[in-house]
């Protein structure tokens, strides 16, 4: 039967958080939808708006489609993005395009509520600074304050990366910036990404992980030695928030029971 396990809150234990092992991608999607709706209801009740950072990738795509028709006041939802490829918004690789096609174009949300990353510029550093300024404006931040997202959705790659925090990249060392341009050598490309301090300031962070190709790295991230330079997903450890892993049986196949 699907269940939950709590990873140990120790330095050697890898990432902390509640791990829910679910039957398949459909079950992960359903659980993600429940978390999204609960977070939205709580945020709107508490402070009038729901601020969420979306993930790219194939697993979140199904969740976004499942949210169409959900009982949410979309006028009170502010969408942001955890990262973006440096491509035009209509490009097939654009995280914004994926979110727009699966969700944003199908719900009654004002255009001003969608805060995309303008990553199609030739100046990646300027794009990162512009998005950082957008976060400052929306939250009214000063100095090195971090925005507090109500929910950050994340995926995890088979190399242990999350958002565009890839193994061995400079962005992993960032402690003050909210958004950076990150050169990913193995991709030969720039990415714009939220930094670990922003993710860790969130009220709730939810990982969506599915597929047998993730099994080995998921075990390392959750139950192996701490090595965030090689396994960037281990950087995610909210300082005053909840961390939840929604994983299917295939991805969880190598996890030791707790």
Task: Characterise this structure.
The protein is α/β, with parallel strands linked by helices and about 260 residues long. The protein has a single domain (about 35-250), classed as Rossmann fold (3-Layer(aba) Sandwich), CATH 3.40.50. Helix content is about 30%, strand content about 20%. The protein has helices at about 25-45, 60-65, 95-100, 125-140, 195-200, 215-225, and strands spanning about 5, 15-20, 50-55, 75-80, 85, 150-155, 180-185, 190-195, 205-210, 240-250. The protein has a seven-stranded mixed sheet, covered by helices on one side. A three-stranded antiparallel sheet has the order 5-8-7. Helix 6 (about 215-225) links the parallel strand 9 and strand 10 (about 240-250). Helix 1 crosses helix 2 (about 60-65). The longest helix is centred in the first third of the chain and has 23 residues, at about 25-45. The two termini are about 15 Å apart. Residues about 5-15 have low confidence and may be disordered.
Q: Approximately what portion of the residues adopt beta-strand conformation?
A: 15-25%
Please state how the strands of the largest beta sheet are arranged side by side: 1-2-10-9-6-3-4
Alpha-carbon distance between the two ends: 15 Å
Largest sheet: 7 strands, mixed
- Quickly give the CATH architecture: 3-Layer(aba) Sandwich
Tell me the domain tally.
1
Global mean pLDDT = 93
N-to-C SSE string, H for helix and E for strand = EEHEHEEHHEEEHEHE
Structural class: alpha/beta
Residue share in helix: 25-40%
Low-confidence stretches: 6-15
Roughly how many Å is the radius of gyration?
Answer: 17 Å
Query: For the record, what CATH class applies?
Result: Alpha Beta
Number of strands: 10
Q: Note the total helix count.
A: 6
Morphology: globular
What is the fold named in CATH at topology level?
Answer: Rossmann fold
């Amino acid at each position: 039967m699907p269940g939950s396990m709590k990873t140990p809150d120790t330095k050697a234990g890898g990432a902390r958080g509640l791990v829910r092992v679910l039957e398949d991608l459909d079950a992960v999607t359903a659980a993600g939808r429940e978390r999204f709706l609960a977070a939205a209801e709580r945020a709107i009740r508490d402070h009038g708006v729901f601020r969420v950072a979306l993930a790219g990738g194939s697993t979140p795509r199904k969740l976004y489609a499942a949210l169409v028709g959900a009982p949410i006041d979309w006028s009170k939802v502010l969408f942001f993005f955890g990262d973006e490829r440096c491509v035009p918004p209509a490009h097939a690789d654009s995280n914004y395009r994926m979110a727009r096609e699966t969700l944003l174009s199908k719900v009654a949300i004002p255009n001003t509520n969608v805060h995309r990353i303008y990553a199609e510029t030739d100046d990646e550093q300027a794009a990162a600074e512009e998005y950082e300024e957008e976060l400052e404006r929306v939250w009214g931040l000063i100095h090195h304050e971090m925005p507090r997202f109500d929910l950050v959705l994340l995926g995890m790659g088979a190399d242990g990366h999350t958002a565009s925090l890839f193994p061995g990249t400079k962005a992993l060392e960032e402690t003050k910036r909210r958004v950076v341009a990150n050169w990913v050598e193995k991709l030969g490309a720039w990415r714009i990404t939220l930094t670990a301090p922003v993710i860790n300031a969130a009220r709730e962070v939810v990982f969506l992980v599915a597929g047998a190709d993730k099994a080995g790295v998921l075990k390392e991230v959750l139950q192996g030695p701490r090595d965030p330079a090689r396994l960037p997903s281990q950087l995610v450890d909210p300082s005053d928030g909840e961390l939840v892993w929604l994983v299917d049986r295939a991805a969880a196949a190598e996890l030791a029971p707790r």
